[in-house]
């Protein structure tokens, strides 16, 4: 095979070719000799880590193209939203091109060439770096073997032909579609600009006219397609116009701050709308259908979570006077009920500063959400420890400036506390606030508001270092999107619904370790710990949490502060003290 090289850089790549030829038919461990840096004519290949056998996690590699050769105009990545959009675009390009080169080349993972897979959301990732100096892709390669014997010919194909081909097609401005890249950048800047407008407009969320909210299936985030798809059309009462930097004027439904109910019959789109709003804390790719479903960045989805552990949370504003005098001012349990878990989830979100709570009746504890008049008459308040959410929603707004969007299908009692009521009918919204208030006035529910007092301030908590001690052999890693292994303990995240990417979970595992080593000192509150970590990530990037510093931290996506706090809060055996 011929390797085309520039004269002064020829030796490094030729050396790689020689090394590959020299290990043909040797045992798999001989691949270790390939680790190092190799200069090709227009990029550098870094072989950072070589897998131990064909069935182990693939080898980690990087390619770096000098920006003067890559040629991406600086205007495309100068702002943070634009840079993240460019990196996301190139990650997808690299992955798509790599798929064309992948093929089975032996046992185990032989022949695999992969980069972090992107979903519908545009997230800050470590898989791609774009700056004024270079473009760098971090990816994985399954070095080929038959059994556990090296096949040098196939390895040479991958390292000396396939990777240069992928670089040539995916990491040079002249090779990508400039119009698609420009569109991606402008969309990200428009989405970010709109999200930044919400507060000054008095809104907590915006859903653009024409948005496609339904997904193709319960297990897919791709948009539903076909003749039956209904584009979103905002009710006149909530229609607002916004002027975006690139797209110009768009219209849509603006949801004001306050208490908003989404009502309607089953299968008419209530939960679909809430789900879109829940994901609106992230930017989305073109064609997703939810590109301009934009939500306050600090919105938090709240649900019941039977069985979760809770450590030192003051849930007394919702649950008090438990049997046998059990403390709810400093409440801990290894097996929370639906109501106590939902109360803890709300207080934990407020502790980190959430201005908007998103709830769905379907995933809430019924006894936490409502106690109707008949139940109030049968079970006296002094025998009922739970103050239902209906009687605290206004307190949350008045005392904490925290709004609520709530999907309700079975309890009209919420009409009395709602500021706005939106009816979903055949996936189309309609304002029914006046009708709901009329029904409430003409048909009193007879229930008595069950509030023993104002919802007090949030007791911040200090995580204690002994909760995070690890032995030298202890592993800290993610297992998919829903589980983190922290030494001998697991953190279960399947009900943290705004965690949308396995890369976020992978980052969370190492963020917890990083926070424990640097900031969890028995003095800093959980909120202070999370903020300090985020400041470091803002300044230094996600690479700082990696075990592969300076080499290959290519598997991470940035989580929000609420998911960081949620992961720490779900650590079984967590010990805290209230500040």
How is this structure best described in words?
- This protein has three domains: 7-176, no CATH class; 202-459, Rossmann fold, CATH 3.40.50; 461-578, no CATH class.
- Helix content is 30%, strand content 20%.
- It contains 14 helices and 27 strands.
- The strands form eight sheets. Strands 1, 2, 3, 4, 6 and 7 form a six-stranded antiparallel β-sheet that branches. Strands 16-19-20-13-21-22 form a six-stranded mixed β-sheet, with helices on both faces.
Entry summary:
The protein has 579 residues and is an alpha+beta fold. Helices cover 30% and strands 20% of the residues. The longest helix is centred in the N-terminal third of the chain and has 22 residues, at 80-101.
Keywords:
alpha+beta; 579 residues; 14 helices; six-stranded antiparallel sheet; 3 domains; Rossmann fold; globular
